[in-house]
UniProtKB/TrEMBL annotation:
This is Beta-propeller fold lactonase family protein. Residues 341-373 are annotated as: Disordered. Keywords: Signal. Pfam families: Lactonase. Coiled coil: none annotated. Residues 1-27 form the signal peptide. Residues 364-373 have a biased composition (Polar residues). PROSITE patterns: PROKAR_LIPOPROTEIN.
Amino acid sequence: MVKRVIAGGLAAVVAVGLAACSSDEPAAPAAPGPRAVYVTNWASDTVAEFGLDEDGALKTPAISLPVGKGDTHPQASVRSRDGKWLYVGNWGTRDVTPFRIEVDGRLTAFPSAHGPAPEPVTPSGIALSPDGKNLYTANFSNGGDGTVSHYRVSADGLPHGVATIPAHGRGTTALAVSPDGRTLVTANSASGDISTFTIAGDGSLTWVTTVATGKGAFFAAITPDSSHVLVTNSLADSISFLHLGANSRPTLVSTVPNPAHEPRGIVLTAQGDRAYIANFANGTGPGHITTFTVTATGISPAGPAVATGGNGAEGIALSHDGRSLYNANFNTNGDGSVTSYPLAADGSVGTPRPPVLTGGRQPDLTSITLPES
């Protein structure tokens, strides 16, 4: 059964209630448009849709859409390369919900794909192979022995579970696939390390090795040339830089202090010369964005940390044209929000725009996705 999601959240409930007693019911929110931005709200089981202005600012209010029937806790999301699908990994129900992205930016929900055996526990990260034919989730396993689940994406865009394998690390929070499609990297926060896997032609994974990076290894990002990996060590307030060999075997090059507290989400520019990092600060303290320059030999901080205007910055994304940056604010004690920033030609982060509400609570981990063009 396919379900077209029109609008959700409190605004939709109010509109339905007024319909019976008033002809002046509020107009339905406008469709976000083909350049929509999507944000998952972990604590409210919803996805927020935002339209996008030409200058990169988010259009408000967001449209709030349900994910599943409750207690799904959508934790992560990724958009297909052709922009036609949004895949949402659900922490609570241990599955992946596919949404078709319509031409107006609205979402059509399809039945969730159940995690392949052995059943994944608390999926927390999600990634697609470069050709879009294989989907992977990092499974936190409540801080125990982490796993990675593999789904094959059929020609109709729907994912189908293939296998779940050990991550060879504990508390696997996130994963990244190299742009050349040869390597998958997991960040294992509870054991403070990363694991690498080779990717076969059919998308299946073979574990290569596990390398320590630092306490609370939370997110990983791979450079566009697939030669290096950057890892945020959230409980060590540091960033690790590793060389990734042709055999998918990483070698630690350096670990550099991060100038803000609890680095988590990380995104690289298309050129791979800068990294932007969202700093969580325990979800209650002021979030910050930190910037690093990236070269073939190492990384170094670039400029001061920039306050997000919200608490618990975690999910982070960069616009396709490299002119705008976005982060989701977890806001443990309040409503979720998104902060956006203009980026200068040299990559420096400009003055943040005021945070805008997502219409839900606690957008978590890889919670924000942007259009590919």
